[in-house]
Structures are given as structure tokens and as C-alpha cells.
Amino acid sequence: MRTDNAWKRRDLNPASASVRDIDGSAQTAYSGAETSVRDRMARIFEEARKLGWILLKALLRFAFMFINNCVAIPSYCLYLLLLQPLRLMDARAFWHIEGVMFKWMLAMVSSWGWIAGYTVMEWGDDVKPISEEEAMVIVNHQATGDVCTLMMCLQDKGTVVRKMMWLMDHVFKYTNFGLVSLIHGDFFIRQGKAFRDKQLIFLKEHLEQLYLSRDRKWVVLFPEGGFLRKRRDTSQAFARKHDLPHLRHVTLPRLGATQVILQTLGPQQENGALSAGDAGQSVRKAPGLQWVVDITIAYPNARPMDIQTWIFGYRPPSVTHVHYRIYPIKDVPVETELLTDWLYQRFVEKEDLLAHFYETGAFPPPKGQKHAVSKEMTLDPVWLCVIQSLAFASGYMWYSVLQYFYCCFF
């Protein structure tokens, strides 16, 4: 009986109860810490697994594109070398064939982004009806991915891709695709005040020699003259100094190349504006420029996409939005001051379009309409597979031919 009471008194001892409580709390805390460590380790392993998959996918994509370039670009060059007699006999037929192959080359580049889930949503005017007419295309410039985006979204615009001439920075000439662009007749412009005047003279000569002789239709240029992130501060300082609009999403365009293109390819009227023209009134054998196509590219969350993203595909699938606006050439002035104002106004409009897009996720509707209409630009996967298969088959064929001749002579 005494023993039982002793145990009861011991159980009622506050110090003894505290010890048990502390032991229980310690065990609970240890269990909670152990669970927390397991959760943290699980998250680390999951993140490592995702990172490993991204790296593996990037390496596989790079390997495929490297091989793709190694077979497609030499095949393009060798086919055109083989067709040089046709160029002497019928230059128009030669450049038609070259244009078709050039479009296929650009389709391969487009497929890199398409496979990674980088698609295009189109807004604004429909440019398909004017795809067979001559036009100058002005585009805002944010990153190297802008060119890839244009290569993709113009694939379904008739003969535009195979009949277009690009104006690009001279550095592009030294890339893997530079040789193809050089053969196609694109113009590589060198930036900087020291080269500006000479480059404009070279551009005029280039247009006179190659634009008509190769049956080109569209001329694509980036009037800002550089990437947004590189030119924004300089552009804003220039705007403050000359009381011009403050732009955040684009920069003030440069006039030189735009004016040279308009003066060289578009017939002038007496009032200094460009007319639609015809073969009877113009000294040129073609009607000349008929339109200016203003293209605005917008990326989700204002995060431009560069060529590295297209190659490695490490960014999650996303939709790039492209807005078109068409202006008749007769409404475009060519006199320096008037053209400067007109071109500035186009980029002020781009600023408004992009500001609205980044705020709402959509471009604003055209004047007089309540809703903006968009459509997804799609590529035919079967067609892309056929082109890729032709590229690899051509690469194997040319390798076999060159190996045969090498064995014959050596």
C-alpha cells in the first residue's frame, strides 16, 4: 500500500512530469526535424532531376542541330555550285531554285523553336494578300531570337521567305548561317558613325545590283540599329536632349537605311512622297515598293528570346506575339525631315502597342473595333520532317560523291 502511494506521489511530482514532457517534446522536435530534412532532400533531388533532364535535352538538341548544320549548309552550297551553268543560261530559274532551298533552310531553323514549344500568335493586318508585292518591312529589335521568330512566322506567307532580302549586322556573316545569307544576297551592315556613310553607299549599290536581278520582293530591316537593352539608355538621353518622346519598350529608329531603301526601290512623285508606280512611269522594270509592313514583336513578360534559347530549348514552352500593320507606300514621305517624323511616329505606336500588351497580355484592337483578333501561326510537322529528311539524305549523297572522287584521284 505504501509502495502504491509512493508511486502515486512520484507521478504527481512536478519535476518528474517536466522531465517526461521534455523527453516527449524532444522526440517530437527530432521527428519534425527529420521530416523537414527528408522533404528538403526530396526537393533537392527533384530539382536536380529536372536540371539533369534540361541539360540532357539541351545536349541532344545541340547535337542534332550541329549535325543538321553540317549536312544542310554544305548541301545547299554544293547544289548551287552544281547549278552554276543554269545561272548562266537562265538566271531567273536559278534564283527561283535557290529561293526554294533558302526557304527550306529557314524552315529548319524554325523547326528548332517549334519542337521546343516556341510558337507564334499573330495580330493586326493580314499580310498574305500582299505577299507577292514589293514591300519594306520594319521590325523592332530586342534580341537575336527576333530573326528566328520572323523566319517562323513568315513561313506560311506565300513566296515571301524565298524572295526576301535581309539587312543584318555584319557579325551575323561570321555565324554558321552567314554563308547561306551571303549567297542568298542579304546585306550585312556595319554599325558605328565611322562606317555609316560608306555603309549607306554600299547598301544603295547592293540594292541596285541584286534586288531586281534576283527577283526580290520584301526587304527586312531593324531601324533601331541594335538590341533594345544596348540602345535604350542612349536613345532616351537623345530623346531628352531633343525633346522627343520617352520610349521604354523600343528605341528611336535611325533614318539612313530606311531612306536609302525608299529612294532606291520606290519611284518618287513631285511632292516628295512615294507612289505605287507602274512599269510605264518608272525607270525600274518592276513596279517598285508598294507597301511598308510594320512588324512589332512582343515576348511574354518582356523577356526577349535569344538564339541560344532556340538552340538549347532550356526555356519552358512560350508564345511570341507578332503584330502586323500595313501602310501604302504612297503615304510614306521620302524627304528627310518628313520621313524622320513618320518613322518616329511608327515607333511611338510600337511603344503604345507593347505597353498595352505587357499590361493586358494582348494587343489593342484596331480603331473602330471593340476586340482584337489573333490567330496561331502553325507549321506542318510532316513538311518539316520531309525537309529534315531531305537535308540528311542530301548530306549522305554528297558525302558519298565526294568520297568517290577522293578515292579516284588519291
UniProtKB/TrEMBL annotation:
GO molecular function: acyltransferase activity
Keywords for this protein: Acyltransferase, Lipid biosynthesis, Lipid metabolism, Membrane, Phospholipid biosynthesis, Phospholipid metabolism, Transferase, Transmembrane, Transmembrane helix
GO CC terms: endoplasmic reticulum
Limits of the Phospholipid/glycerol acyltransferase domain: 135-251
CDD domains assigned: LPLAT_LCLAT1-like
Sequence intervals crossing the membrane: 59-82
GO biological process: phosphatidylinositol acyl-chain remodeling; phospholipid biosynthetic process
Name of one Pfam family that matches: Acyltransf_C
Record family assignment: Belongs to the 1-acyl-sn-glycerol-3-phosphate acyltransferase family.
PANTHER family reported for this sequence: 1-ACYLGLYCEROL-3-PHOSPHATE ACYLTRANSFERASE-RELATED, ACYL-COA:LYSOPHOSPHATIDYLGLYCEROL ACYLTRANSFERASE 1
This protein's name: Phospholipid/glycerol acyltransferase domain-containing protein
Organism per entry: Anguilla anguilla
Taxonomic path: Eukaryota, Metazoa, Chordata, Craniata, Vertebrata
